[in-house]
């Protein structure tokens, strides 16, 4: 780095001079062009002019304004570069810390141990959160298995979708049947259609509700494995159907009796004609009324029959099992999703560290070599600054002494020196020093991290085996062999 390089307003590495032409724009370790500075400061002219005036006085012991300008110009460049040096040293220190095997190994080891401790402590949490749910699930599973075995069932229970919307359909059936029946009853009612609908509503409610319950219970018991239960179910179903037919026959006879004798005596007459002559209907609409009621009863009965699994009690037993399974499964997912996130995140970091750690020694060596080169360059730069100041002072002083007639000032013989070196400043020394500790052997560190990874996987699998997912659990609460 020469102090004598001639520049035409541009430093050798591309740096430019300020518009006042007095000092270069700061740039890290840019060459110092003493010839350019001497011309811009007009040192020879000012020195000769001051010499002709015999200034500074011979007894002056301090630099004059021109000398101070020289020192300030060069020291400002030196100060800026010193600040840049400290910034570079901070950057190197930070990067060396980043690629410190000891620091990275310690960080990964702490992270792995923390994750392992969290997985191991999950036993207590799992027992508190999953234990009761697991016991309830196992109890309902045993109940379901025993029920299927006792009743020789090899299929899963049928759980019709939209079971509770069936009541909406029943309401529609009642409303629709009531309106249609009301038209038929309007003929004999003193209130016309409104009165007919009033009578029909009562009959429709009894018809639909009774038929639905008939299909829901007695009809389904015909499927029971027990022959006595089958017989009772069949008997009740046939009895119920007979009652429904009797109800609709009564409704048809009531319509005709209302038309012939009036509403007050219609009930008794309808009962009498139903018993004595069930098919003795004179109006075709009465047959329509009977048929319509029968059709709606069949629809309601089918809705009741398919409201649950055809086999009695199988649907309720299965729903208890399914509800317990879903509750346990949801709690299991909440816990193990969180634990798996901890495991996966830690394993990713450990594996990344295992891959990166072997590259650290070479990276650190390169960084130290680069930092050493920069330090030596700065050491040379400081020497060049000092030399440049002396050269510029010599130009000014030689011109001054050539023209003056009195003795030169005593301080002209003094040699300029930098106040201090940035390389010996406390901050620079601290940044260049590295903590001395026992080096971590890379292979040993890799072995420790590998073992931590294996421990994490084994602990997570142990938890999954101890608290398996419902799909992997036997009736005894253990993990099934078929995964």
Distance between the termini: 73 Å
Largest sheet: none
- Regions with pLDDT < 50 over 5+ consecutive residues? 4-25, 188-195
Q: What is the count of distinct domains?
A: 2
Gross morphology is: elongated
Structural class: mainly alpha
Average pLDDT score: 84
Order of helices and strands: HHHHHHHHHHHHHH
Q: Percent helix among the residues? A: over 70%
Report on the structure:
The chain is mainly α and 483 residues long. The protein folds into two domains: 1-151 and 321-483, no CATH class; 163-307, no CATH class. 71% of the residues lie in helices and 0% in strands. The chain is built from 14 helices and no strands. It has helices at 34-41, 43-52, 65-98, 101-150, 166-185, 192-216, 218-221, 227-261, 263-276, 284-305, 314-356, 360-403, 426-432, 442-466. The protein is elongated and about 165 Å long.
What's the SSE blueprint?
Elements: H1 34-41, H2 43-52, H3 65-98, H4 101-150, H5 166-185, H6 192-216, H7 218-221, H8 227-261, H9 263-276, H10 284-305, H11 314-356, H12 360-403, H13 426-432, H14 442-466
Which structural traits does this protein have?
mainly alpha, 14 helices, 483 residues, 71% helix, elongated
Give a short summary of the structure:
It contains 14 helices and no strands.
